[in-house]
Amino acid sequence: MVLTLSGLENIELLPEPEDDRILSAIDPSAVGFQDEWRSEVIGWSPMIAQPIHRVKNKRFLFTNIVLFAVFASIMLWVWQSGYMFIEVPPPKSEWAFEEAGFENSILDGLTGDGVRVCIVDTGIDLSHQAFEGFQVTFNDMISNSASPVDYGSIAHGTLMAGILISQSHQVGLSPGITLGVVAALGDDGEGMNTAKEQTISDAIEWCISEFNADIISLSLGGTQSESMTREGPSVSSTRKALDNGIFVVAAAGNDGGIDDDGRVSVPSNVPGVISVGAVTKGGEVWGNSSKGNQITVDGDNRLHPNMKPEILAPGVKIISTGVGDSWYSSSGTSDSTVFVTGALALILEDQPQLRASQNIDGSCIDEVKQALRMSAINGIPEHDDQLGYGNLDAGAWLSSVRNMPNC
Questions:
Q1: pLDDT digits (tens, 9 = 90+) for 365-390
Q2: 42-74 burial, b for 16+ CB within 10 Å, e for fewer?
Q3: Which of 84, 167, 246, 397 would you label with 325, given CA atoms 20 to 30 Å apart?
Q4: Average pLDDT over every residue of 101-127
């Protein structure tokens, strides 16, 4: 996603390393400021999820042909008679739910009920059958629609929301939450979702003041620059959320590999924010998941439990709700961010004293993050620049939170 600004007199335009058609606007007077939100941060080429067909490799004998012909004739009669209708369902991401610890019995009965989650994205399309009966508080910062709408070129917000709240087929991670969605990003006509920096900031402010969020989920981000010297409004708003006891979960970014700039995306770089990288099926780090730098642009050393990224979660070929009644497959740290958001929603249902309305100053956020650090699968207590503290285990995280000494 690309962030455009007014007053661009003193910027430099630099080509992205993976696509020189995408230009990043670098303002040397700004620190932690997203001059350009990269489209790949929000997901990698989502596709309609096709039904999976499995065929055994056996010799096809003449008798098989005869049996098949008889069977086909019977099925044709049944089909024409109207007695039976067969529909092959799309696949699911069951592996992701299991590997991220959502099958742990400690989470039985938890749905996120009463927890207020705010998503800043492209909006949401509620026409999908998986959202039937679900009510969303919607705020349109793109136009003036009173009804929920998704302005994204790939309905990115709908994809992310489905991972959380789908009510059927693949039931979401936290289907009982109270959900707020801000449409702050929109299709720029070239296949990317764009927004002004101030719009992102205003969206976060709405989540804080109007929606009264317990969690703000940001499947978005942009680059850092060592030449930046001050914060922009989106970072300031993120800090305000944390100071008010609101948990913020944000994508680490998708610029991993040989061209990795060595820094997670903004605002996941902000201390207190949970920065999330992605893993594939089997728990291996996704090659495009961004590395972190444990020295801030101000030259300060990061301290536990705020080293970046903090955690990895499933983020490759994740099935979720698409446009219409389609199910899409997408990959990126956007998807993995929502897995951490979903786990946290279940924890806040179980431990309501950690919600923002009770924990006004945010003093328990670091303690919850410490519990996340110590509960990670393949735990790395001293941290790794790409692997973080390890992989998400939602059940173990809740168990660790229940044993926190001060909160």
A1: 999 999 999 999 999 999 999 999 99
A2: bbbebeebeeeeeeeeeeeeeeeeeeeeeeeee
A3: 84
A4: 97
303-354, pLDDT tens digit by residue?
Answer: 999 999 999 999 999 999 998 889 999 999 999 999 999 999 999 999 999 9
- Overall average pLDDT of the 135-158 stretch: 94
Give the phi and the psi of residue 295 in degrees, each rounded to 5. -120, 125
Instruction: Give pTM, 2 decimals.
Output: 0.81
Nearest CA to 340 among 383, 307, 375?
375
- Is 133 part of any domain? yes
pLDDT in tens, 221-261: 866 665 555 677 889 999 999 999 999 999 999 988 888 88
What does the alpha-carbon distance between residue 67 and residue 50 come to, in Å, rounded to a whole number? 28
In a domain, 75, yes or no: no
The answer to whether position 241 is within a domain reads yes
Rounded Cα distance between 266 and 253, Å, is: 9
Integer Cα distance of 276 and 306 in angstroms: 12
Residue 165: which domain range?
2-44+91-402
The CATH number of the domain holding residue 300 is: 3.40.50.200
Residue 163 lies in a domain: yes
Q: Is the pLDDT of residue 35 over 80?
A: no
Alpha helices, H only, 260-383: 333-350, 365-375
Looking at the DSSP assignment, which residues form a beta bridge with residue 196? Answer: 4
What is the rounded distance in angstroms from the CA atom of residue 401 to the CA atom of residue 381?
A: 17
Q: How many domains does the chain have?
A: 1
SS3 144: coil
